[in-house]
Amino acid sequence: MLNNYNYSRSYVRQHSTCQYDQQYYVQPGDTFYQLAERYGISIIGIEQANPGVDDNHLLVGQTICLPLPPCQNGFQYIIKPNDTLHHISQMYNVTVESILNRNRELNPYNLHIGQAICIPPSIDVDCPMERFHIVRPGETLHELANRFHISLQSLLFANNHIESPNRVPVGTKLCVPSSMETIARKEFEK
């Protein structure tokens, strides 16, 4: 027994797919309330991202999803076991230097599991609207248009920096028009 915590029933890895959120590995003593306070998110948001997960029976090593808010002109990433800045930079097509510039307090030689860092976009553009999204591994424009309830054409129109709609590089910043902007543009084009 370490720190009065019973590890005998811990380290049960349950595979969790976090479609829109960050995957997080439960640490000793974690609760939804504590995670909400640490990452500045709502308990309801955590519950909605993890249907069927009982907050009273979290196991160390269990994977859950955290709906993290974006950081300034980027997105938050939670450090996972065996992560290095080099690995993270390659995964999101950014440089280690750009990650360090965005996270000035970050010690690259002392990353902590569960630590949140800001990942900048690899292709940065100014978005006239406030909403933007940084493309993550496995995402497609079609899927993103559906997620944001806009047409693929509207998403492409707002992002003329996209060279090929069939392949958008991970880390690309996309401007996301609201569905109201899309309706207004359609009316204007008539």
From TrEMBL:
Domain LysM: residue ranges: 22-66, 75-119, 131-176
Read off the SMART domains from this record: LysM
Gene3D superfamilies associated with the record? LysM domain (3.10.350.10)
What is the superkingdom listed in this entry's lineage? Bacteria
Q: Which InterPro entries match?
A: LysM (IPR018392), LysM_dom_sf (IPR036779)
Matches recorded under PANTHER family: LYSM DOMAIN-CONTAINING GPI-ANCHORED PROTEIN 2 (PTHR33734), MEMBRANE-BOUND LYTIC MUREIN TRANSGLYCOSYLASE D (PTHR33734:SF22)
Name of the molecule in the record: LysM peptidoglycan-binding domain-containing protein
